[in-house]
Amino acid sequence: MICKLESQGVVSKARSPFNSPIWPVCKSSREWRLTVDYCALNEVTPPLSAAVPDMLELQYELESKAAKWYATIDIANAFFSIPLAAECRAQFAFTWKGYIDDTIVWGNTAGEVFERGETIIQILLKAGFAIKRSKVKGLAQEIQFLGVKWQDGHHQIPTEVINKITAMSPPTKKKETQAFLGAIGFWRMHIPEYSQIVSPLYLVTRKKNDFHWGPEQQQAFAQIKQEITHAVALGPVRTGPDVKNVLYSAAGNNGLSWSLWQKVPGETRGRPLGFWSQSYRGSKANYTPTEKEILAAYEGVQAASEVIGTETQLLLAPQLPVLGWMFKGNVPSTHHATDSTWSKWIALITQHARIGNPNL
Q1: What positions does the domain Reverse transcriptase/retrotransposon-derived protein RNase H-like occupy (predicted)?
Q2: For helices 215-229 and 194-203, angle between their N-to-C axes, nearest 10 degrees
């Protein structure tokens, strides 16, 4: 893909102090589309209000035509079709070749893993890398990779990590609190409503606040350790026509939460792929209850897309049945978020999700 874009003059080799990772996306045709993850660049870029197409209005427009014949046109490589000013090109630099010094090999049989492992070892040796025989682990049905325990496609918190966290004493100063939050933060996707639980702990780490460990902090400290102990395994990501991708979302008094599950026939609730949460910040705290529910669904759809891809349809199961009207194109007369924000929410949610009962 990159060689083709280079031959077309779309991209070129360069040296730059900036760098972003590529984000290949698998299309429905099973071909790959090359995009770049510019999240970090967007964080430091002034916001741009863009006109987001209203999917429902487009649908109503097509329905009103009652046409008998249709044709569609799709721009090729639209991601790379917008020209960049010469002085801005360095900021959009990306790399595609990289490495990590830990490599994992998997397969459905021991023989398959052995053959693949042998091939990879020969490739690494040919490239000039040395391999320590004592560091090679397996063949095994359970293995630890990058600090995570993997078994049958599931990833879970290793027992030694759980024991280490639960053995920690209550912090006596800010640095100790930050160290504890760092130890558990890596596993936040395993813990429902993580942000709301640890919110009292973050309060004592703020620069403007003096360290004070009170009953609220002690309760949060004990609760998050309890949650770590009972954390469930996540995954594996399954594909196929019988797989339902269910997104549960909720907006509570202290923040948003959502979780992604997969169900196949015969499963009551399914298997979790991840839990997410965030506290209300800035103007979001003043949103109406309906807006908070919409925001939870919006954030959930974005997070789910990173796990199962943007081509997969989601079944949305909000905690409160307030989102159905959104699929009819209605916007309440009383709201705090801007109209452009509403358009952004509705466009993304209606494009990637539908309201439904996950038990049907």
Answers
A1: 213-308
A2: 140
